[in-house]
Design brief:
The complex is a heterodimer.
Chain A (H helix, E strand, L loop, with lengths): L1 H25 L12 E6 L14 H7 L8 E3 L6 E3 L2 E6 L5 E6 L13 H12 L17 E7 L2 E6 L6 H4 L25 E7 L3 E6 L12 E6 L3 H9 L5 E5 L10 E14 L9 H10 L2 H8 L4 E3 L22 H13 L7 E6 L7 H15 L2 E6 L2 H8 L10 E8 L9 H4 L12 H12 L2 H19 L2 E13 L3 E2 L16 E2 L2
Parallel strand pairs in A: 1-10, 1-11, 14-15, 14-16
Antiparallel strand pairs in A: 2-3, 4-5, 5-7, 6-7, 8-9, 9-10, 11-17, 12-16, 12-17, 13-17, 18-19
Helix pairs in contact in A: 6-8, 12-13
Chain B lengths: L1 H28 L3 H5 L6 H10 L6 H13 L13 H7 L1 H28 L4 H15 L2 H15 L15 H28 L1 H8 L4 H29 L3 H7 L4 H10 L3 H29 L1 H9 L2
Helix pairs in contact in B: 1-14, 5-14, 6-7, 6-9, 6-11, 7-9, 8-9, 8-12, 9-11, 11-14, 12-13, 13-14, 14-15
The chains are: A alpha+beta, B mainly alpha.
Chain lengths: 516, 310
Amino acid sequence: MNDRIRRFALAALAVTSATALLAGCAGGDASGSEAQDRSLRIVLATEPVSLDPCDTQDAANAQILRANVLESLTRIDAQTGEVVPLLAEEWEASDDNKTWTFTLKEGVTFHDGAVFDAEAAATAVNRVLNTDIGCGNGTTDQFPYPVTTTVIDENTLQLTSEQPDGIFPLRMTYIDLASPNTPTDAKTDDPIGTGPFELGEVVSGESITLTPFADYWGEAPEATEVTYLYRTEPTVRASMITTGEADLAVPISAADATDDGLTKEYSDNRVFFLRTQTNKPPFNDPRVREAVHYAIDRETIVGALMERSGLPYDQLVAPTVNAYLEGYEGPGFDPDKATELLDEAAADGVAVDTTIELVTRPDLFPGSDEVMQSIAQNLTDVGFSVQLRSLDTDAWLQLLRKPFPPEQVPNIIAISHDNISGDASFTFPKYVASTGTNSTLENSEIDALIAEAETKSGDERAELYQEASKLLYDEEFTLVPIALQTKLLRLAPGIDYEPNGLTGVELRISDITFTG
Amino acid sequence: MWIFLRRRLLTSAISLVGVIIVVFFLARLTGSPANLYLPESATQEQIDEFNRLNGLDQPLLVQFWNFLVGAVRLDFGDSIWQRRPALDVALAAMPPTLTLAGIALGLSLVIAIIAGSIAAVYRFRFPDRAISVTTLTISSIPDFWFALVGILVFAVQLRLLPTSGYSTASAWILPTATVMLAPIGVLTQVVRGAMIDALGAGYVQNARARGFGTARLVARHALRNASLPIVSVAGDRAAGMVNGSIIVGSVFAFPGIGTVILGAVLNRDFAVIQASVFVVGVGVILVNIAVDAIYALIDPRVRVGAGKGK
């Protein structure tokens, strides 16, 4: 018997050692190469859906292509939020803000050798704006008015908007310019631009490699080759930095953050806020809406539950957006004041005890369900009768958008909205104006300010939006800002990169440096 | 045997058509892709145009008829998400899934046959108990937990394996182990049970009496007789593996049909859902036919039985 057990144990040991040996042999090359050859491996959450230059509205596509392979006439300076030249040297507007004349940079060529001139630029702009190939860019969201192109001379391109458009140069940041040899009657998976990198090998489902473009007009980036990998699981992305399989992981979750200076936080100009209704009791009384503001303990909820993924926030847009109010402080946490407001409303016959729905969706942001549960508790504490509903995106969208049918239960809906453009026209018409598809507000004064701002540019435009902001925050209380969301990325030792508000949609390889 | 296979093929084809029809209607119950693909501020006109372009504006029965007409020609339409033929998307995902399934099943069988045979020989004694407890424990480990802990231990701590990917041989080890978790326990128990029966049979007792050693008895005599239940359970497992593993796809970025189907459902990509279900269905049918063929090879009685039916 003992002998048998010993034999069995020996056999088991042999099998185990053989397996370990096999694993050891196969794993010999897993430690990864050193970054001395200046090649970069970047691990992202998702693979791009399309490589067509006209589909860079999608973050997964843009993060690889924009500013690396493709360039536009103008770009947004991530630090200031201002529109600065890229392939255009300068531009000028006509007095009515309808005709915009761009002077183009000289000496620029596309990766296929085609010369970048006004003719090429016009072809590229028309491919996005005036063809029917289903571009993600150039939609009415980005370009609300039809645009025509006119070539003035070799280096001058005139673009005319059917309506006055004060932020036309900003809109041009959305049009990545493709080589004139790009097909205009179909999508392509071979993006040819003017950027510092050319598209190299594409292995579907696995990786995309970029190689430097020798004839790039600007300063050559430090990286000599870039490989993008995709991993859905945030823990795996972070682990790949530890194991040396990647040099930059973006984004990672707070649980995988390190305190060694290699994990960096960045805001993607995304604000998490709540929207109340206005068309039915109890929310048709502004005091009830104001009570919602006082009821929520942002500091505690955001501080404890969002950790490094958010900061308590009082406004609808990030500080880089022109509607931002410098120094504004919203109604703080004051549950007594909230109860008082509700009691007042109740005394005037408002049905404050009506059951309201607090609507969210599980993928609003990581950990959002816990945050929403705390908010529901806050609201219950001051006297609201709250039911929390977590819906899938499709069902959530139906409650977000108009029409709001009368049989709908009064609700407060959780929204996470980003505005990386720096201009409030990508937020206010949709969420604040009474015609906005996602707006519950009806305020003619605010509508007039937004409409006027649309036709203006610069400071004048900013002031009008800020005035609308003030009215929204001080009188209407329909939108309840909770947090300015932040994201995290992780760097390998020897790599330096300062993330910014555009990192999520424009990861410029030129901004990545090697310190080792 | 050929009559048997033909009958099997016909009944399988009928169930495949049934499944595809059910999936067609179920997918459409999940909601409209328009909400997901258009910007939040999309107007009703834009939504109508999107639906028109994608053929979603037509009555459901008309859509169904168009789908059937296309499906007969193996044309499932284009993926809304990836803008290429849905069948190409599904087929491209099959080689990694099938390779992984083949390796995982092969290794599981080898381990199960060795462990199950040892357990049968030492029935109710320590080796049997140890093997049963170990293999059942392995089978009870949740695969997502094993996958993440596997990465933390073998990639992050020991640095023996890469965290993920599939282009190097070493990257296949953790995904293969993850997929092997569940089959090992079941297969070992099946081998053990079948082997105990076989070892108790008269001809084996007879051989033992003639002085054959235990190893030879197991390998030469009992295994062949024990293999019928093993083949049928392994076939069942193989059919399950053809579906691909969502965990392996999402954790290890290992491409495969499981990831494709999950992505298609989340993206309301009806054409890809349908094409994938078709491809997986055909895969399952082929596995079943292969199992039947192996049965016939192992057990002459199956061949003789079918021959009489001619």
